[in-house]
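Sequence and fold:
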Amino acid sequence: MTGRTALEYRGLIASALMAAEAQQPTPAPAEEAPVVAYRDPNNPRVLLCREHGKQWHGVVPVTSEDLPDGGICTFGRLSSLTCGRDVLAAPAEETK
């Protein structure tokens, strides 16, 4: 017998576990998908492109993963100035 108590063994085991844990590589943070549009939480039929959505307060950003069927900007649908932009299409400055 080595003369160690159960408490000493627990301390040794805990130290070994902490050392092993410290050697584990830290996983890289998952990349967030870019915001492609904004949705009105009170009216889910309202979908705004990046240009029109960022000017409104209270809208929720959505990614392409949230829109598997795509979507069209509904900004100005009740007026004569309609957007109608495909929210999944790359903006003009990104396509140049």
Summary: The chain has a mean pLDDT of 80.
